Every structure is written in C-alpha cells, then in structure tokens.
Amino acid sequence: ATVFVSGATGFIAQHVVKTLLSSNYKVIGSVRSTTKGDHLKSLLNSPNFSYEIVEDVEKEGAFDQALQKHPEVTVFLHTASPFHFKATDIEKELLLPAVNGTKNALNAIHKYGSNVSRVVITSSYAAISTASKEVDPNVVVTEQSWNEISWEDAKKDPVSGYRGSKTFAEKAAWEFVKEHNPKFVVSTINPSFVFGPQAYDSEVKDSLNTSSEFINAILKNGPDATIAPTRGGFVDVRDVAKAHLVAFEKEEAKNQRLILNAGRFTLQSIIDILNENIPELKGKIPVGEPGTDKAAIAGLSTIDNSKSLAILGFELIDLKKSVVDSVQQILQARK
Ligand code: NDP
C-alpha cells in the first residue's frame, strides 16, 4: 500500500513516516520546499520514500497535483497544520490554514484519490476539551466531547487560536464526510501534549517544535527560572506514530476519534523526573516544590479514553520514559 503523509517534515510526521517505512509501506510525503524534502529523504534513507512539494496547504487546490500524479495512493494521513503560540493575526496564521488545509486535502482526495480508502486526520485533544471544563475536576472527557470554543473566542489569544484551529479543522473534516459521502473512511487522532525524542538525533535544534520545547525550555532556562503553571495530558510521539497506523489499518478505527493520552502532568512533574533520573542536571534546572504536581493534577478533568485505548491495543509509554528519552537525546546532541 502507498501512504501519503502531509507535512512530512514535522516532529510527529517524521516518526509516522519512519514507522510506516519500517512496516513496509511506500510513503509519499508532502513538504514545503525541495531543501526540506531532500533533507528528509537523506534522513530516512529509503527507496520507499519520495516527496512532493505542497508549499502551503491553505492555497486552493493545494494537494490536487500531488494526488493526480500519484493514483497509487491508498491511504492519506493529514498531519500538516500550524502549531505555535506566536500568531499575531490568529485567523490568518492559525484558523484559516488549519481549516482550509483540511478541506483542500479532503477535496483533492475526493476528486483525484480514486484508490484512497482510508484517511486519517491528525486532530488534537484541543478539539476534544473545552478550556473551562479542563480545569473542572467533576468533568469526564470522552471521545464524544467537543471543544465548545467559538470562532470569535478563538481569535482572542494565540493559545485559544491554536485550540480553535484544531477544533474547526476537525469539524470541517466530519462535515465534509456528511456532505459528500465520499468512498473513503475518515478517522482522527486526538493527542494531548506530545513528548518524546525527535525521530533523528540530528533534528535536535536549539529551539524545538512547540510541544518538545516545553521540556527543552526547562534545560535552557537554568535553575532559577520560575516554573510556569502549565498542566495537561501527554502522550509519547512513538505511540502517536503507531496510532496513525492503527487508525487506517483496523476496522474498529473507522469513523472514530482516537484520544491519545497516557496521563496528566505539570511542569513540576517533568522537573521531578529529571532531578530524580538525570544526575548531570542537578543544579542546572529548578527544583521547585517536588511532589506538588499531584494537587495541581487533581484540579483537572478526568480523561476517559478507554474506548480509544481498546482500539489501539497497545500499552502507552509513561511520562518518565518519555521525558527521560527526550532529555537524554537533547543532552547527547549538545555534547
Ligand atoms: P510541527 O510544527 O513539527 O509540524 C507541523 C508540520 O506542518 C510541519 O511539517 C510544517 O511544515 C507543516 N505546516 C504547517 N503549516 C503549514 C502550511 N500552511 N502549509 C504546509 N505545511 C504546513 O508540529 P507537530 O509535529 O507537533 O504537529 C503535527 C500535527 O499534530 C499538527 O496537526 C498538530 O496540530 C498536531 N498535534 C500536535 C501535538 C503536539 O503536542 N505536538 C498535540 C496534538 C496535535 P514546516 O515546518 O515546513 O513549516
């Protein structure tokens, strides 16, 4: 089978492509430039990988040529979407690219992907949970939950903007299915914060992708940095990659939203793990108030993703391994 992966250069997508290749799939990735494509091709070092240029997923017809050229594609994984918290024009930089990118992908598959039977959209836990409910310990979040954010509220700040972008993009996908009744089946992957190592050691840069940077920043900011009250759910990128395969391989995954979440964390949880497990960091990162993460986590909603976990059928990597593996790779790369 031949799998098309949009945004193939991304943190998550590189792991997805790597996992697909090791499972003997042929992969066509979309990237934004030949420089990026050639770089990825040299990392992957596989005759089963090739790339097509899609400079901007938001441009009308963005994926048309790539799919016309590759009628052999049977599975389409749409991962490309802006993920950062630095937008100044939220509609232009986050909401519209996410929504139109998703619509462009689905339109192209509908028109030209005559052999595509399965489509997986990399959505997010951000499309599942409403910010105000996330901090209500009485709330139980499931695969049926939706972020109730409005387009207007999404424009208020970059974090809401990102969360809104994922919500409206996923809604657009399900609406497309309803409206066009295509012959392909859609599934979505809804991960919470994704941690874990980069797919290749050489991809460790000073500044990493948004979710990895939460951990990287702890290393960069020194022992006296104040610890931000960041808290949420997490999942390891290697599990996110495996889940993308399950999402198109398994019958039970059809039309499902898969919440990928291995547990809750705060920045204090990460700091505690690092101080306990990586001796060379002693004195170089904050100590904070060890163990106080439990109370902060108790103030959050409960995530019941048992349905997703049953479909996935594999055990998720825990916070300790995810964090330690991330940081060991960073420390190694900096030596
Ligand atoms: P990255 O920033 O590493 O990857 C994003 C990818 O999308 C990059 O390849 C980027 O290309 C591409 N992209 C962004 N905007 C455009 C555009 N307008 N046109 C073409 N390509 C574009 O982030 P992640 O790997 O973390 O994220 C991948 C997906 O997973 C996203 O959909 C994100 O929302 C989702 N996700 C991520 C989570 C996380 O914690 N990491 C959690 C939940 C969901 P380039 O770099 O060349 O600009």
Give me some keywords for this one.
335 residues; alpha/beta; Rossmann fold; seven-stranded parallel sheet; three-stranded mixed sheet; 13 helices; globular
Strand/helix succession:
EHEHEHEHEHEHHEEHEHEEHHEHH
CATH architecture classification name: 3-Layer(aba) Sandwich
- The radius of gyration is 19 Å
Number of domains: 1
Strand content: 15-25%
Helix content: 40-55%
Structural class: alpha/beta
Globally, the shape reads globular
The number of strands is 12
CATH C-level label: Alpha Beta
Bound molecules: NADPH dihydro-nicotinamide-adenine-dinucleotide phosphate
**Annotated CATH topology:** Rossmann fold
The multimeric state of the shown protein is single chain
Report mean pLDDT, rounded to a whole number.
98
Q: Taking strands numbered 1, 2, ... along the chain, how are they ordered across the largest sheet?
A: 3-2-1-4-5-7-10
- CATH superfamily heading: NAD(P)-binding Rossmann-like Domain
Describe, in plain words, how this protein is organized in 3D.
Helices cover 44% and strands 16% of the residues. It is of the alpha/beta class. The protein has one domain: Rossmann fold. A 7-stranded parallel sheet has the order 3-2-1-4-5-7-10, sandwiched between helices. A 3-stranded mixed sheet has the order 8-9-11. α8 crosses α13 and α10 crosses α13 (319-334). It is globular. The protein starts with a strand and ends with a helix. The model has no long low-confidence stretch (mean pLDDT 98). NADPH dihydro-nicotinamide-adenine-dinucleotide phosphate binds next to α1 and β8.
